[in-house]
């Protein structure tokens, strides 16, 4: 650098500093962080406005979290800067988001959603950028040494769902995406069903972004049968479309109608048939129960489809986290109320929003533990690898990613949180079917 350029640069810095001091009296702009600590830049990505699953609430929650921590002086004095990216549910979109994270020197990708793990993990690994708290939809999130998942992904959900269904369903039909990721669902579900010496589910692959599902819905109902049969669909955002097609199927001769939901103890009043209730207070049409997992069915979907009168009333649902009304979510709800500014994308009952909150909780605790003026991707990954313990306030077990904490399941070795919750839809609300978490680690390990 020449002497003239250096002199000009020093003059600029001096003028800027003096100007900031005049504005605030202490060199800090109102509402921002101060001190000598450098900002922390991270990225959150998710698909939006696509024909398949969309998760706009995740980047919106990231921005809400940043507004909150920055109003409190940042994370340990570091201003949190958020980059967001729409990965469009495509491999090119996911790779483009990852390359942008590298280009803009993000120190982590946090609380994001993408099915295209191979496309985004390679650029992140090459740059040494950790992937913290992904939604858990891609296999690479559970194999990459730079991925730090906060839940057990689809593997834990589906294996746990098999355990949940085994106690109530004589036969099970599984409708799942006809994709590489979906190809793993049958064995995971069956590993849970086998815990109760249950027969395997009938596997029904379906197009992930179809406009209607009459054909697979008909097959699923026929294979489940009308005597304690269950139809479970794991199609992401298209699960709602599937069950709408399922609801519209013509009734079979001799089948009963819907009950009124009963009292949760089997005392439902009949419709056109006996309408007998069960443990959830509802027996689905044609004697077939419906079910799914969090992310395919959640409170926002239930609300949009009629609440207590939705087709999901009485459905079994397996989740990663406590029910949305649990007191453990109170801090998140307060932050959303005060800093989301009526952004309706940030729904506290949405599994994506919840995952992003937990992921940023991990980031916050790790950055605070570093106690350094400059936060780098390498320092974050090193702290996590060395055994930083993350308390999420009861939303998950204590999280830690040391070697001995990893489940080591084939295809999903980096699962550290292998606990799920069993929920059921009652009177239009997702509520706990049983209290607490259920450990599905051994079930996931038993899947081929």
Task: Summarize the SSE layout with pairings.
Elements lengths: L2 H22 L15 E7 L10 H15 L8 E7 L4 H13 L4 E3 L6 H11 L3 E2 L14 E2 L4 H14 L4 E7 L7 H10 L7 E5 L7 H11 L4 E5 L5 H9 L40 E6 L5 H6 L11 E4 L10 H10 L11 H20 L6 H9 L33 E8 L2 E4 L5 E2 L1 H6 L2
Parallel strand pairs: 1-2, 1-3, 3-4, 4-5, 6-7, 6-8, 8-9, 9-10
Antiparallel strand pairs: 10-11, 11-12, 11-13
Structure, explained:
With 448 residues, the chain is an alpha/beta fold. The chain is 35% helix and 14% strand. It has helices at residues 3-24, 57-71, 91-103, 117-127, 153-166, 185-194, 214-224, 239-247, 299-304, 330-339, 351-370, 377-385, 441-446, and strands spanning 40-46, 80-86, 108-110, 131-132, 147-148, 171-177, 202-206, 229-233, 288-293, 316-319, 419-426, 429-432, 438-439. Strands 6, 7, 8, 9, 10, 11, 12 and 13 form an eight-stranded mixed beta sheet that branches. α6 links the parallel β6 (171-177) and β7.
- Number of contiguous helices: 13
Radius of gyration: 24 Å
Strand content: 5-15%
Global outline: globular
Q: Mean pLDDT, nearest integer?
A: 86
Helix amount:
25-40%
How far from one another are the termini? Answer: 61 Å
Query: What are the low-pLDDT stretches, counting only 5+ consecutive residues below 50?
Result: 1-33, 254-286
Main pleated sheet? 8 strands, mixed
Order of helices and strands: HEHEHEHEEHEHEHEHEHEHHHEEEH
Count of β-strands = 13
Structural class by sheet pairing and helices: alpha/beta
Features:
single chain; 448 residues; alpha/beta; eight-stranded mixed sheet; five-stranded parallel sheet; 13 helices; 35% helix; globular; disordered N terminus
């Amino acid at each position: 650098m020449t002497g003239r350029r250096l002199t000009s640069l020093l003059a600029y810095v001096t003028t800027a500093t003096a100007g900031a001091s005049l504005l605030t009296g202490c060199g800090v702009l109102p509402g921002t962080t101060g001190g000598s600590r450098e900002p922390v830049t991270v990225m959150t990505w998710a698909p939006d406005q696509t024909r398949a699953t969309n998760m706009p609430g995740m980047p919106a929650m990231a921005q809400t979290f940043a507004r909150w921590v920055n109003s409190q002086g940042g994370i340990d004095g570091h201003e949190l800067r958020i980059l967001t990216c729409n990965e469009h549910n495509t491999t090119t979109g996911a790779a483009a988001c990852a390359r942008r994270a590298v280009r803009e020197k993000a120190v982590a990708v946090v609380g994001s959603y993408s099915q295209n793990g191979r496309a985004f993990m390679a650029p992140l690994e090459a740059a040494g950028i950790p992937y913290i708290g992904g939604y858990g939809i891609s296999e690479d999130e559970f194999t990459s040494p730079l991925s730090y998942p906060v839940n057990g992904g689809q593997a834990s959900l589906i294996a746990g769902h098999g355990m949940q269904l085994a106690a109530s369903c004589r036969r099970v039909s599984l409708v799942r995406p006809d994709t590489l990721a979906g190809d793993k669902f049958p064995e995971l579900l069956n590993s849970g069903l086998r815990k109760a010496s249950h027969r395997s589910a009938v596997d029904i692959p379906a197009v992930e972004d179809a406009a209607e599902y009459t054909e697979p819905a008909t097959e699923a109902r026929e294979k489940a049968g009308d005597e304690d049969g269950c139809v479970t669909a794991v199609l992401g955002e298209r699960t709602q479309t599937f069950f709408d097609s399922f609801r519209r199927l013509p009734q079979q001769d001799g089948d009963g109608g819907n009950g009124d939901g009963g009292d949760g103890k089997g005392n439902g009043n009949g419709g056109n048939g006996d309408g007998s209730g069960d443990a959830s207070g509802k027996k689905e049409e044609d004697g077939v129960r419906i079910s799914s997992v969090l992310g395919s069915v959640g409170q926002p979907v239930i609300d949009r489809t009629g609440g207590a009168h939705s087709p999901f009333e009485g459905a079994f649902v397996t989740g990663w986290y406590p029910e949305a009304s649990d007191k453990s979510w109170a801090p998140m709800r307060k932050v959303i109320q005060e800093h989301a500014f009526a952004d309706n994308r940030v729904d506290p009952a949405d599994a994506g929003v919840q995952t992003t909150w937990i992921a940023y909780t991990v980031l916050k605790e790790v950055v605070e533990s570093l106690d350094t003026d400059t936060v780098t991707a390498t320092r974050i990954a090193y702290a996590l690898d060395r055994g930083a313990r993350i308390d999420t306030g009861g939303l998950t077990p204590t999280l830690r990613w040391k070697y001995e904490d990893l489940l080591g399941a084939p295809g999903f070795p980096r699962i550290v949180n292998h606990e799920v919750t069993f929920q059921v839809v009652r009177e239009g609300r997702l509520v706990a079917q049983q209290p607490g978490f259920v450990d599905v680690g051994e079930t996931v390990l038993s899947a081929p």
